[in-house]
């Protein structure tokens, strides 16, 4: 499974994950900058905010009310491509995703 993170400074980070993992956690364990993940993946902080590339948006599960509320309070502007990285799990069903990182998480 492959996760590609596009940083606002123009750099790109590609991470390969063998096991199901969230977009938030895969960034942290692979030292991808731009994701904080303060609450540890519980949809309670919005510091894992990402903009999902349109090709992949439709393939994601519907967002929960908690995720929806947290995104309203995200540090960077929310758009129709906004999701919480901790709520996106990359596994056999969704084996690839490309996200853009927001300019700030805090
Ligand atoms: Fe806190 Fe995703 S890590 S909301």
UniProtKB/TrEMBL annotation:
Keyword annotations: 2Fe-2S, Iron, Iron-sulfur, Metal-binding
The protein's name in its UniProt record: 2Fe-2S iron-sulfur cluster binding domain-containing protein
Signal peptide bounds: none
Pfam families in alphabetical order: Fer2
Domain 2Fe-2S ferredoxin-type per the UniProt entry, residue ranges: 1-105
GO biological process: P450-containing electron transport chain
MF GO annotations: 2 iron, 2 sulfur cluster binding; electron transfer activity; metal ion binding
Keyword Iron assigned: yes
Cofactor list: [2Fe-2S] cluster
PANTHER family reported in the protein's UniProt record: FERREDOXIN-2, MITOCHONDRIAL, FERREDOXIN/ADRENODOXIN
Family: Belongs to the adrenodoxin/putidaredoxin family.
Organism: Cryptosporangium phraense
Gene Ontology annotations for the cellular component aspect, listed alphabetically: cytosol
Gene3D superfamilies given in the database record: 3.10.20.30
């Amino acid at each position: 499974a492959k996760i590609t993170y596009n940083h606002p400074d123009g750099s790109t980070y590609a991470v390969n994950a063998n096991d199901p993992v969230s977009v938030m956690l895969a960034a942290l364990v692979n030292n991808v900058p731009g994701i904080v993940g303060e609450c540890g993946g519980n949809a309670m902080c919005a510091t894992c905010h990402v903009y999902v590339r349109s090709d992949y948006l439709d393939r994601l599960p519907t967002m929960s009310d908690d995720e929806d509320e947290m995104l309203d309070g995200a540090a960077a502007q929310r758009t129709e491509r906004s999701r919480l990285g901790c709520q996106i799990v990359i596994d056999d069903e969704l084996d690839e995703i490309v996200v853009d990182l927001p300019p700030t998480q805090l």
